[in-house]
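Teaching soon. Invent one.


***
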Amino acid sequence: MDNENSLIYGLEFQARALAPILAETEKLKFIIGTQSLKQSNNQIHLVEFNEEESVLKPQLFHHTEGEVWRITSSAVDASKIAVCYNSIIDESTCAMKSHVLKLPENYDSNIIDNLEVSNKLDIPSNDVKTTEFHPTNETRAASVTENKILLWDLSDFNARPISEIQLETKNNLKYSLGKWNPHQNCNQFSALTETHLKTYDVRTGDIAWSIDCCHRIFVRDIDYNMNKQYHIATCGDDSFLKIWDYRQTANPIFSRSDHTHWIWSVRFNPFHDQLILTASTDGRVLLSSAASVSSENVIESCLTEESNELEAKQILSDGPLQWCEHEDSVYCAEWSPAEPWIFASLSHDGRLLITRVKKSLKYQIML
């Protein structure tokens, strides 16, 4: 167990939705959504971490629309978050919906209020998987349903649909998640369909590139390397973390299986891409090194005693470097965009861990 570098924040209800406030680069802030079976009890927690004093400052908001399954934040506007939630329609029917909410500039920690709806998304589906903000354009977003990718204009309260990409398949495959490619002028959107990854050019709706059978079982998550434009990480129910160069997709360029159960989340460190977070239903969050394929693949030369010749030596070896233990399944782990050495992880029992990278690892990378 390796939790000595962590702070714990406990929620009243179960939770599986966590996101960093991407546009906030001065303060360490994370957003959480709960999953109470009683719809009116659900909450959204905005948690700020004061690194100097090592304390957590939470702010609670009501989310009476239903249990939160996914939260994302805008990389441009720190006040905007997108929520996918399960809402009860009647006694026998419920539906997955999504809307964009606005965090207030000023709030009273003693008052629990509802968040203002910033954009209403009229999605013609009862099974919304995620809503992802465009990386650079605050008026654009994309929602993923079981068989469509919907592109939105968020200029008005009632978001205007711009276009849609229909999943074409003969095998009844369904989309499970999606994410913008931050490279290629942000004109590509990637979506997961069971064991496959399909990336579309949003200007035409055509497939730009794809990776078929990138995992033996279900693919759960993807993440782009911000420092190497052709590298993408995937994880899945086969317990593998893989990194691909999507110009040559026959085989991954990096592959490890260090978890004992399904991996639900994978994240490159946005500053030091040799560091990768994975969260699993085995109850562990692993901080691993993929130095051999990173932009920081630093090789030091040293003289051997016997031959007096230069020998190449990789400074940081591949594999697990640090881990933290939860008592329940972990569905998400996220880096702080404000501090490269801090990450958060959330287990289904409603326990948030704010964890620091070990100083020895930090100095090894920096020096």
Observations:
- The chain is about 0% helix and 50% strand.
- The longest helix spans residues 359-366.
- The first strand starts at residue 6 and ends at 10.
- Helices lie at 359-366.
